[in-house]
User: Fold this.
Amino acid sequence: MGISAEAPKDPRLEDTPVSNIFLLDILPDLPDGDFARVYVYALMCVRQGIFLTHSELAERLALPVDKVLAAWRYFEGRRIVRKLPKTPGDETQFDVEFVDLRGLMYAKAAAPTEGAAAAAKAALGDEELRRLGEEVAKIAGTPSFGASDIVQIRKWVEEWGAAPETVVCAFRYGRDVKGVTRTNYIAKIVREWADKGLRTEDEVAAWLAESDARHGFYKDIMEALGLGFKTVTEAERKVFDRWLDTYGYAPAEILEKAREKTAGAANALKYLDGILKKEQDKKAGGGKGGTGAGGGGMSARAAHYRDVQAKNRAEAEAHRAEVYAAAPAVKVLDDEIIALNMEQVKLVTSSAKNKEDAWARLERSIAAKASERAALLEKAGFAADYTDLKYDCRKCEDTGVVLGSGASCDCFLPA
Assistant:
């Protein structure tokens, strides 16, 4: 005898299971609450056999298409979806495959041991470490850190070689940029910075500026070489980094050479690498006419953009600190806006009734607090965008390459 059940005719009458792995490990770290809406709604469509284009998904969620594409880029980076290219060279044309999250379970921390308890006691007794804990707790907006958090921070300093100054920077970066100050999350940032040998706030700021520009360059050079639909491999990154760091080329010069010299090449990347290496060899051998590394103009320009980016990020950070000191209520509002954004994220996956009304109330609250923030800034004598990151050149955002086109910016001057 068979047993069956009539399939519901309306998707509203079915349930969409969302893995607790997503809710516990992905959701709290999302940089944008709308990303959760994209993931959950698309997952529902997949479960129901409903096919939507990215534009249709954006329309149903009342979001810009760019926001939907950004969500997929983020989730691909977290390895919980796969982007399957459909049209080579067009990064907007791809299908999405949801990954089985059970295979991505995070390792659970072992239960505290007697040794860990002793370490916690020792950590709490270390005056310098206590002061560091108090400082980062203040950044995180908590009265104090517990013993287990102090033990983690001790490990970062003693085992990973992290400088106390960069630990403070990591918590500030997590709060201001990622909206996350959980110790386990900050640990990833601290470990990366320690591995890179970053010891001061200036070094961190310079690396962050260069890192943002570097990833933008990877995307642009892949497109210039006709490889825009491919994910950049580690081997390709090493080649690109050699062009920039060892040879000393500025990003815009490499992109110009890629467009001018590799058209029709069977292996454009290898072909361009050969050209740049020959220029290097020629310069090293004293030949004339080489334009390779070390050419004063190229190295100076690359350094110029790095310095400009570091300067502007440091200025934005200083402006935030200045505003928070003059008008502490602005910091309170910033924290409240972040909390409201997280409420929106939680609402996406909740089973609460009248979710649309709740979402609208949160939107109104965020808008009201943003208006209140602007008024406080004005009252304190600051412009509304005073804490925003500024660019010397908005066209290329201080990279030398026009955003989205890969063309050299007007600010990219000849050597």
